[in-house]
Amino acid sequence: MADAALFLVDAHARSADETCRAFAVDPGHGLAPGDALARAAAAGANVLASAPPVPAWRKFLAQFESPLVILLLVAGMISLAVWAIEREHQLPYESLTILAIVVANALLGFFQEARAEEAVASLRKMTAAQATVLRGGVRTIVPAADLVPGDIVILEEGVTIPADARLVESVSLQTAEAALTGESMPVAKDTAPVAADAAIGDRSNMVFAGTAVTYGHGVAVVTATGMRAEVGKIAGLLGETKAEQTPLQAQLDSVGKILGVVVIAIAVIVGATILVIQRDFSAAALVGILLYTVSLAVSAVPEGLAAVTTVVLSLGMQRMAKRNAVIRRLAAVETLGSATVICTDKTGTLTRNEMTVRALVTPSGRTDFTGSGYAPQGELLADGKPLGEGAQRSESDWALATALLVNNAHVVERDGRWTVLGDPTEGALKVAALKAGLTPAALERRLPRVGEVPFSSERKLMSTVHCDVTNGARTVLLGKGAPDVLLARCTNERVGREERPLTDARRGEILASIDALAGAALRTIGLASREIPEGAGPPGERDEREFTWLGVIGMIDPPRDEARPAVATAHDAGIRVVMITGDHPNAALAIARELGIVPGAAHSSGPAGEAVIGARLEKMTDAELADVAARTNVYARVSSEHKLRIVRALQSQGAIVAMTGDGVNDAPALKAADIGIAMGITGTDVSKDAADMILADDNFATIVAAIEEGRSIYANIQKFLRYLLSTNLGEVLVMFFGVVLAGVIGLVAGEGEAVILPLLATMILWINLVTDGLPALAVGVDPAEPALMRRAPRDPGTGVITRRMWWGIGVASVVMCIGTLL
């Protein structure tokens, strides 16, 4: 089979039969073993390609790429050459000292950054080790690496999906795709074709490698394997994405280059000046002038700068670790302090990634729920007050009992953390029932389940059959599902403890309440019940009618409690917060408004009050996207390629971008950003390996704390740069004027000396290492200033040494020179 026929990029737009015909496979029989071998030879293994690992020696040598370090090495080699000529000492102390500084600095940086980049290797871990397939009409288990396009894969609850595939059969199938698309909820799957331009998150008839089945079962035909699968495309993007140089690295490299030019200029100017003054061109005089210029060069280079910078960054790294921010690269410590934009994922970063019931609307009114997440802690409120006894309480209890019983999830506590085993939506419903004081064991004894009609995407509801042992063993059918679908099957509603006919007027009111919840970006679930008459036969789908309406529940993945004040602090510090998510735009905007990322009014219009979706972004040129990125704070339904383009669009405008994320889909953007920030608890290995910083507590507020630390470190780096350069320039001036003004200040050349040197090179090194380095280190660990987070971010175009600092350095060095010569 030709390569073009091995893979289908538009399988989601075709029918299941068309897709199977394209692969020449019978979904009930599967591929013949021989055909599978032939396709494997043509398509290759179902694995992700990875770049060869970088040898440790190359990582170590990379520590010497800084112009400042190169400058030190050049100074050391010149000093070694002079020692070889002069042989005044038994050992070349100056050269050995410089070498020791450079090697110690490189070793410290190497060991701090020793963790290798293993993002693609981590992607491999996400793929399933085995897969159940039909081959030759026989169900068999094969290594996931042996899957080929056209294989018929059997999907069961709990399995990891081994390759991208088009569904041929779906029975209540739902998959968790948060790590790939950012969608916080399990996605219901069916077999109907979708639009050719549908985003990945909207391809309801496709399942993707690396995601997992959370509910139901199905059959699918493999459409893409290995690097052609969606997770493989991300691996490719990650391999193509180059890690950006941090602002601090760029600034220090610039300082190193400037110092190199200054050193050469000083040596040339001073050497020429001495020749002009002395007019002595003898060999002894020339050697003396060479020694002198080397001494000047050594004095101009701040040998302690690289070491002090590394130590200050390392100490900052340790302080950040205590605040739950784990830094993987030294230079990234400072970069956060320069951030002008934080691009953050929504699910699991700004939100808890734990579905929570917010409201229940029954015929007597709305009941609100406090608390968030899966911990069953909170209370029920009506009009802001605790829900008392009466009709609304009775309605709420029966509706929540129904939600608890039509439910296959389990809520458990592990190591002090509440989690859900099963579908997150069902888990949220069970938690809401627990908050109401309902006891699962008691309800299950009173209403034991005797049957189930599973959820299906066609019916959009699920029902369970129960025997009411306290009421004559009557049979009760309880249902939950899409509110509009379930309401259409209802003929009555439960008001208090009574059932009343459902009028058209009441239907309209109920639909309005459903729309109101949906308008607030709440996911809605309808609840209903009915009694099955005796002798009606085994309950089933045919009985999902003539229900009694109980109410509608609204739930959401809520924001973290600490996220809103963290966003406010970021705004006070002049930092934009931009939400980039694969979730639905309504859900994204609701969370963004609640956190203050966009204006709070639901009717807000314009870029500040709307979300740009991936389909629209797809059609933009880079220039158009850069214009939109300057004004837009919320992006929804975006893919990994979109996230990467958004980060680069912001960077093209001069922004220093911090990008947070936890999923596979975030990894390329994390690597391309000025600083990538991964979640430590919910984050995938891929995102952690691609990031510069990891949040050990998955707390957005930790980012703000890290920004404060980064700003403090940058301010301290400026302080010790000012100090070091002042003292080194002072030494240069002392050396220069010590020779030029030797007669005035009483310096006399010794016997055999052609040039008077006020300080020897060894003396200068000692001064730089002891009297410069240690005080500079003390300055570099100053605590943060109180108003640090109320200032705007520094201008990225401003150098680490400003014009005002240069003036200060110049004045201080002149004062030092005068004082020393006097």
Q: What can you see in these coordinates?
A:
With 822 residues, this protein is α+β, with helices and mostly antiparallel strands. Helices cover 45% and strands 19% of the residues. The protein contains 30 helices and 28 strands. Strands 10, 11, 12, 13, 16, 17, 18, 19, 20, 21 and 22 form an eleven-stranded mixed β-sheet that branches. The protein has an eight-stranded mixed β-sheet with strand order 8-28-27-26-9-23-25-24, with helices on both faces. Strands 1, 2, 3, 4, 5, 6 and 7 form a seven-stranded antiparallel β-sheet that branches. A hairpin with a 5-residue loop joins strand 17 (461-468) and strand 18 (474-481). Helix 5 (67-86) packs antiparallel against helix 11 (283-300) and helix 11 (283-300) runs parallel beside helix 29 (761-780). It is elongated. Mean pLDDT is 80; it is low at 115-128 and 601-607.
In brief:
By secondary structure, the protein is of the alpha+beta class. It has 30 helices and 28 strands.
Shape summary: elongated
- The amount of helix comes to 40-55%
Strand content: 15-25%
Structural class by SSE content: alpha+beta
Radius of gyration from CA coordinates: 35 Å
Number of helices: 30
The major β-sheet equals:
11 strands, mixed
Low-pLDDT ranges: 115-128, 601-607
Mean pLDDT: 80
**What oligomeric state do these chains adopt?**
single chain
- N-end to C-end Cα span: 90 Å
DSSP strand count: 28
Layout: helices, strands, pairs:
Blueprint: H1 3-6, H2 16-22, H3 33-43, H4 56-61, H5 67-86, H6 93-112, H7 119-126, E1 130-135, E2 138-143, E3 152-155, E4 164-176, H8 178-181, E5 187-188, E6 206-207, E7 212-224, H9 230-240, H10 247-278, H11 283-300, H12 304-322, E8 325-327, H13 332-338, E9 341-344, H14 346-350, E10 356-362, E11 365-369, E12 380-382, E13 385-386, H15 391-405, E14 410-414, E15 417-421, H16 424-435, H17 440-446, E16 449-456, E17 461-468, E18 474-481, H18 483-488, E19 490-495, E20 498-501, H19 504-519, E21 523-532, E22 547-556, H20 563-572, E23 576-580, H21 585-595, E24 612-613, H22 614-618, H23 622-629, E25 634-636, H24 640-652, E26 657-661, H25 667-672, E27 675-679, H26 685-690, E28 693-695, H27 700-740, H28 742-745, H29 761-780, H30 803-821
Parallel strand pairs: 9-23, 9-26, 19-22, 23-25, 24-25, 26-27, 27-28
Antiparallel strand pairs: 1-2, 1-3, 3-7, 4-5, 4-6, 4-7, 8-28, 10-11, 10-22, 11-12, 12-13, 14-15, 16-17, 17-18, 18-21, 19-20, 21-22
